[in-house]
Amino acid sequence: SQKIEQNSEALNIQEGKTATLTCNYTNYSPAYLQWYRQDPGRGPVFLLLIRENEKEKRKERLKVTFDTTLKQSLFHITASQPADSATYLCALDPIKAAGNKLTFGGGTRVLVKP
Amino acid sequence: EAQVTQNPRYLITVTGKKLTVTCSQNMNHEYMSWYRQDPGLGLRQIYYSMNVEVTDKGDVPEGYKVSRKEKRNFPLILESPSPNQTSLYFCASSHNRDRSTDTQYFGPGTRLTVL
Question: What is the chain A residue with the closest CA to B43?
Answer without folding.
Answer: A104
